[in-house]
Amino acid sequence: MLPKVSLGLWHNFGSVDVYENAKSILFHAFDRGVTHFDLANNYGPVPGSAEITFGRVLKEGLGAHRDEMVISTKAGYIMWDGPYGVWGSRKHLIASLDQSLKRMGVEYVDIFYHHRPDPETPIEESMAALDQIVRSGKALYVGISNYKPAEARRAFEILREQKTPFIIHQARYNMFDRWVEDGLLDVTNEFGVGVIAFSPLAQGLLTNRYLNGIPEGSRMSKGGFLKPEALTDEKLARIIKLNEIATRRGQTLAEMALQWILRDQRVTSVLVGASSTAQLDTNLTVVEALEKNPLSAADLSEIESVLNGK
Fold first, then answer.
1. Spatial separation of the C-alpha atoms in residues 275 and 10, rounded to whole Å
2. pTM exceeding the 0.85 threshold for the entire prediction
């Protein structure tokens, strides 16, 4: 159902970004076979503006291909003040999706996610809201995100009992963050649920961008989610070694890092971001590499040794 590489609109598509650049990336992505566009109610900045940008691009021509796209959005992080502007109550999830549909100018989304577990709301209520959303015609399928294995199992059990069409779990997964391997991939596989990996390049760490330190204008230099302290000497040493393996294989570190995630058949797709069409093209090379330059057992063993600090 999903392409191997999907486009996430977490960054670069907000009201602070250049609209024409965002538009060109979206059209280019579709032309290159990227049919899945992933959003959330709070993506921007400002929150909500990524959906507005996407909706504008749909109106300006991309929407002619709506039936060839998989559009997803989410709710669960803070979106507006007050008790119903965050987390996982029925009111928040349904109201949030209604707002998202208006911002994008669409009648439904293909996938609607609960963005994170809610410690205060019973999981039964959150899953019942997802079921109601599908039955109301506002989403074709539902998914969850950031749920740990035990939480995911319970959510899947409820959704199955409700006969809600649940198909996917979106989780952070990359060479430096492998928590999904500790049970989650087994749970999703048991229930026949796909996994889509976000932050597959560790927000740029698993590219050649930081091989020689922190360049001016990079995401790390600007602060935000990626802090300079994330690039420790130990991590930089691993990045350099991984880049050496990738170079020897005739590919970029980013391509190899994406390919490494997709080595596991339980992972359906990787979510990449893009600040330009050129950057998107660089990430899309992994699709061909999967077929023509597969990772060998020796490659995987060497990568594993580097990741384990050997």
1. 11
2. yes
